[in-house]
Amino acid sequence: MQARISLRGALLLCTACLVAGPLHAQDARGVQFTFDVEQRFEYGRNVDLAVPADGSSAISATTLTFGILSETPLDRFAFSASGALVIENSPSTTGTDVEFDRPEVTVAYTREIPDALFGVTGRYRRGDVADLTDDLADADAVGTQIDYGATVTYEALRTAPVSIFVVGTYDATEYEDTVDPGLIGSDTLGLTVGSRLRFSEVLTGTLSVGNTREVEDSGVVTETTTTTAGLDFLLPTGTASAVLTFDTGDTEDRTTLELSRSYEFPSAVLVARIGATNSDLGGTDVIGGLDLTQELPDGEVTLSVARGVSYDAAAAETTVDTSLAVAWERNINAQSSMLLDFSWEVSDAPSERVEETEIGATYSRLVADRATLDVGLRYRTRRCGRAGNVAAGFPGAWAELLNRQGAETGPLIVLRTCASPPFSGRSLVKGEPWRTRSKRN
Questions:
Q1: What are the E-state strand segments in 157-237?
Q2: If DSSP codes are grouped into helix, strand and coil, which group holds residue 366?
Q3: Residue 176 has pLDDT above 60, yes or no
Q4: Lowest-pLDDT choice from 60-69, 252-261, 346-355
Q5: Strand partners, 337
Q6: Distances from the Cα of 338 to the Cαs of 14, 346, 361, 404, 407, in angstroms?
Q7: 124's torsion region: left (phi>0), alpha (psi -120 to 50) or beta?
Q8: CA–CA dist 93, 95 (Å, integer)
Q9: Average pLDDT for residues 89-114, to the nearest whole number?
Q10: Whether pTM exceeds 0.85
Q11: Three-state DSSP state, 16
Q12: Which residues contact 267 (CB under 8 A, 6 or more apart)?
């Protein structure tokens, strides 16, 4: 199979943007309202990695976010809605298009008393597949992805030695304006019933049985039953836990045992995981991970390493996912900081190997009471296949000006230039790569 590699570089791009900080208002009943404005500019050449290159894209997006938060001693209600006014001129548009896009809505309500808890959440979002997907193989896909769902949680007898809980979930994914055969919409229903066991103040356990039913738009139905038993032990320096999981479904039967230990030091947190997973189709493999956060006098260093295993029923083969991520943040002064980060991910299967490497640098500066300017460099390579052929690529650049609440950052100006074939390798699941699950392509 021919290998393909795409390269995306980064070079500082100077710009000027105006961002309004979040506006806060609180009424007499303790209800807080927030309003955020974020301005984002993008410029890219051959953003979809087409061959031959499909030209340049210029996008301006003004994102408005409105939020409501209400808290009482027993209840908590949170609501957030956002959308963007997008002005785009790209090969996929006829001239310059103006539309209101990228809507996202989340709502959550929780009522908690000492002996019981009830919670319900709802979510909806719509955007480009490349921006919303968790699958590395779809990172360059063209089209619109729509995700929505709800979760209902109830727990009773929370003060008793044995409590019970019930969790119901519904998740749906739809795709529009795409011709990629691998993008298949689905609806998933899940129900989990379990119990929490309190053996002592430092030792607790969990037993649960859950069932999920996924129905794809193609008509394929997959049902999986998951039985979980876990123990958590509170130690002076952290926690230790063991989790045993049995997954029985239409695709495969899998048994996974994972041991974990967390350490909390005065200036560091370390979490280590090690385990094994066995599939009736793919055999036995080692899984695990390591997460380290080390505070420094002028910043912070983070390290994450993970190894996970999944089985692809369509290809009848096992995929091993490995990832490494390192980041160093340094506080220059009270208003600015610098972040350097590196990540490497590999999805290795007998039929194909997908490898992605990324390195970046970001400079952040507080330019107003509630506004932050981020500028940076980013370079990424992605290789698919087992042959040694490499396609040509060109560097790109991005900078960002961002209004933030908390510590999240995101690009507001992105310049990406790449001349390489469109990527269509197998998937590398992001998120919790040390977890195992079956995949259906």
A1: 162-176, 186-198, 203-216, 221-235
A2: strand
A3: yes
A4: 346-355
A5: 331, 364
A6: 17, 27, 7, 16, 13
A7: beta
A8: 6
A9: 91
A10: no
A11: coil
A12: 294, 295
